[in-house]
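Here is the promised in-class demo. Please do not try to memorize the tokens; focus on the logic of going from shape to residues.
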């Protein structure tokens, strides 16, 4: 049986479902899922993208105290679906920062 590589996955998926799949979109989705499922997703976003509590306050319109707890108190972590939305918004913020001319 031939070995399947990561490059084969979109082709296989497209053949099975008829959907056109972009490998870069799959990679991006996998990275966002990895961050959202991490033990400390806020810390990971800070380390990877430089997202600060202040950035989240402005991005989400969330109270400062709530955001501080998300970053520094593990038991106060928001629900997993909320974390996923936060990660997606922060990823868009990070992409926007990267595309700015320096």
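The designed amino acids, position by position:
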């Amino acid at each position: 049986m031939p070995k399947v590589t990561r490059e084969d996955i979109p082709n296989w998926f497209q053949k099975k479902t008829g959907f056109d799949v972009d490998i870069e979109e799959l990679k991006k989705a996998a990275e966002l899922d990895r961050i959202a499922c991490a033990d400390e997703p806020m810390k990971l976003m800070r380390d990877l993208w430089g997202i600060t509590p202040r950035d989240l306050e402005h991005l989400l319109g969330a109270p400062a105290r709530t955001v501080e707890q998300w970053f520094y108190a593990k038991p106060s972590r928001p629900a997993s679906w909320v974390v996923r939305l936060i990660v997606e918004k922060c990823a868009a913020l990070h992409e926007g920062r990267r595309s700015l001319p320096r």
